[in-house]
Specification:
The protein is mainly beta. It has a single domain, classed as Carboxypeptidase-like, regulatory domain (Immunoglobulin-like). It contains two helices and seven strands; from the N terminus they run H-H-E-E-E-E-E-E-E.
């Protein structure tokens, strides 16, 4: 007599149906953007940008540009923080479009 249940094969069923590419993308997604002042359009340097449910993070450069690579499935939520501006959250659904983030001064 077998000690395992007759239905124990059901535990392995998701692994047989789903491939790793269904769970994880085949390569990281690259999110690019530009952080600007909402009133005058000037680039915001050293804005801290991070993905809420991960460890991915970046700082905007002198030109306000940032890049973050992630293995997470889209959409992802970005948080943008800077000491002189109000924090902002945005959802990224299509990383092929360069994101322009307008920050409001405090």
């Amino acid at each position: 007599m077998r000690s395992t249940s007759a239905y124990s094969w059901l535990i392995a069923l998701p692994a047989l149906i789903m491939s790793p590419s269904d769970i994880f993308p085949s390569k990281p997604v690259k999110i690019e953007g530009n952080v600007i002042h909402s009133l005058n359009g000037r680039q915001v340097e050293n804005a801290y940008i991070y993905i809420v449910s991960g460890e991915e993070e970046a700082l905007s450069g002198k030109d306000g540009v940032f890049t973050i690579s992630t293995w997470q499935q889209l959409p992802v939520t970005l948080v943008i923080e800077h000491p002189k501006y109000r924090s902002k959250q945005i959802s990224i659904k299509d990383p092929s479009k360069k994101t322009v983030i307008k920050l409001d001064p405090k």
